[in-house]
Amino acid sequence: MGRPREFDIDDALDGALDLFWRKGYEGTSLSDLTQAMGITRPSLYATFGNKEELFRKALDRYDSTCMAFTREAMKQPTARAVVSHLLYGFADAQTDPVHPSGCMGMNGALACSEEAEPIKQELVGRRVAGEAVLGRRLEEARASGDLPADCDPAELARYVMTLAHGMAVQATSGAGREALYSIVAMTLRAWPSA
């Protein structure tokens, strides 16, 4: 029978998430992780696997907590409301004083060497999947007459996600919530209507 854990898994994962968010995947060492998580290397490996597996678990935690607003956004009654909820949610998450500025996915993948290619591909895959979900929701909106018939839902989803990623870069560079909100407001003023 093994010894009981002497640490809270969620707290340790939150420590890893914060560190990966601030320093990126490659900028975070195992020593940094064990210190931030308050655990030993053997405990890290036994509980979370290697660094790559830990990063994926931290991404899952990020998606289920900090990015939970994205699932709510897709339930909004109109395409404009979906995009409004989504972009204001990104602005809030990217400037939340409790967390590092910007986006964990963007911060984690912008500078990756060949050794970290699997992590980069994981992040790209998640971004593509998120864009596809938005594209399908906008397709529904077009089919119901909520968007103009000549509107391309996939192109519009790409535009919205590109804007969200640009806002993340702005937030990482020091832009505050008010600045990001003004970008969202400008986008919504130009939103296509049926």
Largest sheet geometry: none
Average residue pLDDT:
92
CATH class of the largest domain: Mainly Alpha
CATH homologous superfamily designation of the largest domain: Tetracycline Repressor, domain 2
- Approximate shape: elongated
Secondary-structure element order, N to C: HHHHHHHHHH
Helix coverage percent of residues?
A: 55-70%
Number of separate domains: 2
**DSSP summary: helix tally:** 10
* N-C termini distance: 65 Å
Strand content: under 5%
CATH architecture of the largest domain: Orthogonal Bundle
Radius of gyration: 19 Å
SS-derived structural category: mainly alpha
Which regions contain 5 or more consecutive residues with pLDDT less than 50? Answer: none
The CATH topology annotation of the largest domain reads as: Tetracycline Repressor, domain 2
Number of strands: 0
